[in-house]
Amino acid sequence: MIEYPIIEEAHPGLADPCGGKEAAMPPVAVEAPDEWRVLDSLAALTHHRDIDALDHSLVLTLAELTAAHSVILAKCFAEDSVLESAACCSPDPLGVYHVRPLEPAQLGASLGPMQRCLQRLEVQTETRGGLHRQLVPIVREGRAIGALQLDSALAPLRSRSLIDGFARIYANYTALLHESEHDKLTGLYNRRSLERQLQRMLQLRDTALRPRPFAVPPAREQRVTPPGEAARVWLAIVDIDHFKRINDNYGHIYGDEVILLLAQQMRACFRRGDVLFRFGGEEFVALFSATDEATVHGVLERFRAHVARFAFPLVGHVTISIGYSRIGAHDYPAVALDRADQALYFVKQHGRDGVRGYEELDASGTRGRGLAAGTIDLF
């Protein structure tokens, strides 16, 4: 068991980020859950294969096991501990628990302690009037991936091992999910996770998009959703031009290096909120949100130009072709892929090293004049 520093503080009141007020439920005597109930909860928790469902189950399970006033799971980007999202579970006036998402800014007074917990890997404890708050980091491979905050009348000595245990199980289980969803060479999502990620993007599109930290200077990447306008989800297929020649001339080791470096350039040129895949071989897919096609074309054209300027070791300069399409709310992944692939095929047939959109080609009538189906393997 990993031991973290414990910081104990006494405060005049425990602000409730879930409700925005001081704890309204009077503390009551709470018994520690029996082992069979805990084991049953663990079995239910590890049944999930979707990370959002897992997050929901984790906070709900801890709340029910400890009769908590509230439980918060805050998640961060592992590379710099910047808070990404949060989920909160708290009871309604009838005592029924509900889970809802929170923006990091909505954590209020909990934001500072949460950030310290993530950065220093500190366990923090506060107590007032019989209600105890514990803040425990979730650590994977030596880095914080999140933190749990639990407000409960259960004594810290009795609840600490429970929270620690669930935090470790969550970290281990998310590592397994991460491995199953990601390409081993590049670390990008793999093709089997496309449908799940697409559905997540479509759900986010229907909510207010929050600004996310940029991986590149803002001058190079500015996609802002104007007030009153809904963001759309777009899918782009990226294909390395003449990749067979690279393998034939330099060998598969250098071919793999080109793939790996291209994945790194994708991360550098797209936002953190965008979802990137290695779809197979030399083909990549990007899912991202934007309000209009002009913005989409600009984003992808900047990426194409960036790759064309990049010097790959030994191989030199490499170009890419990109086709893209807008995704409707009821489109199947195969339909969206096929549209983007048709646009990619057009680029390949007209000189490569370019960017074209399905909607643009369709509106101009080009699609009806020989825009054939592409070559991507959809299944």
Can you tell me about this structure?
The chain is α+β, with helices and mostly antiparallel strands and 379 residues long. It has two domains: 6-180, 2-Layer Sandwich (Beta-Lactamase), CATH 3.30.450.40; 191-368, Alpha-Beta Plaits. It has ten helices and 16 strands. The protein has helices at 35-45, 51-66, 111-120, 156-181, 194-205, 243-250, 252-269, 293-309, 333-349, 358-363, and strands at 6-10, 15-16, 21-22, 70-77, 82-91, 97-102, 123-128, 131-140, 143-152, 232-240, 275-280, 283-290, 311-312, 316-317, 320-327, 355-357. The chain has a seven-stranded mixed β-sheet with strand order 1-7-8-9-4-5-6, with helices on both faces. The protein has a five-stranded mixed β-sheet with strand order 11-12-10-15-16, sandwiched between helices. Mean pLDDT is 82; it is low at 6-12, 20-24 and 207-222.
